[in-house]
Amino acid sequence: MSATEERQEVRAQAKWVRISPRKARVVAEHIRGRSVPEARTVLAFTQRAAAVEIAKVLKSAVANAEANHGLVGDDLIVYACTVDEGPTIKRWRARARGRVARIRKRTCHITVRLAENPKAIEARSTRAAAKAAASAEPKSESKPRRRSPAKKKEAAA
Predict the structure, then answer these.
(1) How far is CA 124 from the centre of its chain?
(2) I want to staple 84 with a disulfide (CB 3.0 to 4.6 A). Which of 40, 66, 109, 125 is the partner?
(3) Residue 59 sits in a domain of what CATH number?
(4) Which residue has the higher pLDDT, 156 or 102?
């Protein structure tokens, strides 16, 4: 990929997800830099609640890429997956001797950014070049058909 060529980037975001950002970041680290099919597989087999939410955002980002930018979903990589802290919902719980304990229900904002896979771009350009070369070549005359042995004898005589 040349320096003048820009990599197309697509993103999707889920806000106010009711999961602690610290717990969601653990899952987000697993899919950074992976291809979309590989990331989907990793999330499908991850046994954490955050994996379900991140899988939804990944699915949305792929849908955005296919619908809005005409990209192929399987040719993309997870360029970045960030989990930012959202607002904290504060609740109270009664404790002994008339006191209270604060309960913090943390939320997060999950952002998934996809980019075109450089390997897929190279493969696509190689196929396009081969196709262009094949169409640019002048079509050769078809080879004469083989004569049957009986016709060879007739031609020789």
Answers:
(1) 16
(2) 109
(3) 3.90.470.10
(4) 102
pLDDT digits (tens, 9 = 90+) for 33-66: 999 999 999 999 999 999 999 999 999 999 999 9
- Domain assignment present for residue 123? The answer is yes
Q: Is residue 54 part of a domain?
A: yes
How many distinct structural domains can be found in the chain?
Answer: 1
pLDDT at 152: 67
- Going 134 to 137 to 139 to 145, the CA torsion angle's sign is negative
Terminal alpha carbon distance of the chain = 65
Single pTM value for the model: 0.77
55: containing domain: 9-132
Cβ-count burial 78-94 (b if 16+ within 10 Å, e if not): bbebbbeebeeeeeeee
145 within domain boundaries:
no
**Residues near 121 by Cβ (< 8 Å), separated by ≥ 6?**
1
What three-state secondary structure class fits 56?
Answer: helix
On whether residue 45 sits in a domain, the answer given is yes
Q: Which one, of 143, 50, 52, 69, lies nearest residue 113 by Cα? A: 69
